Amino acid sequence: xxxxxxxxxxxxxxxxxxxxxxxxxxxxxxxxxxxxxxxxxxxxxxxxxxxxxxxxxxxxxxxxxxxxxxxxxxxxxxxxxxxxxxxxxxxxxxxxxxxxxxxxxxxxxxxxxxxxxxxxxxxxxxxxxxxxxxxxxxxxxxxxxxxxxxxxxxxxxxxxxxxxxxxxxxxxxxxxxxxxxxxxxxxxxxxxxxxxxxxxxxxxxxxxxxxxxxxxxxxxxxxxxxxxxxxxxxxxxxxxxxxxxxxxxxxxxxxxxxxxxxxxxxxxxxxxxxxxxxxxxxxxxxxxxxxxxxxxxxxxxxxxxxxxxxxxxxxxxxxxxxxxxxxxxxxxxxxxxxxxxxxxxxxxxxxxxxxxxxxxxxxxxxxxxxxxxxxxxxxxxxxxxxxxxxxxxxxxxxxxxxxxxxxxxxxxxxxxxxxxxxxxxxxxxxxxxxxxxxxxxxxxxxxxxxxxxxxxxxxxxxxxxxxxxxxxxxxxxxxxxxxxxxxxxxxxxxxxx
Length: 497
Ligand SMILES: Nc1nc2c(c(=O)[nH]1)N[C@H]1C(S)=C(S)[C@@H](COP(=O)(O)O)O[C@H]1N2
Ligand SMILES: [Mo]
What we know:
This protein is α+β, with helices and mostly antiparallel strands and 497 residues long.
């Protein structure tokens, strides 16, 4: 029973912290704050593992893991405090409060950021004190005492959950980030509408353009950064002649272009879904760099973000004519909060971790010798061009198939373009798939192949060749350190037609 009191104390602490956090623009629940630091400190094999096992649910898994650990600690503290000495309870809660406060105080809000941790800890202590002594004096062994206790615990949990859920509900409502009121400026030379020929429109096949709400999301931020566009600034500095500082208004007023670019995460496993295609709007990075006047001895563009994430990629990639964009729009809308509002970078042909930085605040010209971006010390490659890849979308794994079916999928080799895709049934010969029309060399291409399924179990395999003539290697490799390789296969069950 003392254990239940401990867990209730922790729940109350987190619930109150969440509620308090709702009352400041940059205040955060210490659980998220500490979680972010755990993510930053975690060894890369663990992150790699988390992404490969839980995919884009990796954060939910982390939070669940933290919650279970916390519950065990809380139960122990409860037992120690109520059965041994109350001082253990004070000590235990103080440790958590201090960890929360310490990790918060480094943030943009300054000292006031410890408020959620402090008030949360006090709530936890309050719960412990309330039950301290009461357990024994009220005679838990008697039915009446037990009923009172269980009622109080039940009410306590209800109260703590209400505070937490209320806080969640209020957060972002008290201090809304006005993305709706932000409208995209017109583009002088808008791209024509996407031709129908790029999309076969097959059920189960990823659409050519990924809707914003379906776009994969990968980042190390547990709670989405909320940047007010009215105070936003982008600084371009480092090895440049004239440092530039641009407000969101400044960026919006500059000439805009649109570009269709397929983004890919380096953590994408063979057959994985960490890839999506959008029409991005923004300004070309090379014109901004030219305006700043880059020092020719700089060889790395480093990006810094509000969540302390950093990216880094070769200067020549920014200036070789591809559409590297300081982007403010995605599929005709301002960037969604999860995808970097108000400003991010999108660079065709490079995996997202080095280039597609969200919530961007600084672009710094430097050298590869002088700086390693976020993932490099964690074992990922410094240079990260996207590898040629192809995926079977339909039929799905272990689908029952019969008669005439269409095998279809997508293939990508950004900045080279896809030349052909071949498909093999079991150990048969490679058959050339039909490709949807190419749009440009920075987007993926759909492919399809009709097939008459025969009874029994079949393995379907695909492989792509890019416009330089390179074919995907059969050799399987893990995403670490510079992207997965290998052919994607699915097993299907043929039934008599
Ligand atoms: N600020 C910030 N930007 C980031 C990241 C991050 O953790 N923080 N992750 C990168 C990674 S690994 C990828 S694959 C892309 C994914 O962009 P998306 O979430 O819009 O699909 O964002 C990149 N930009
Ligand atoms: Mo990524």
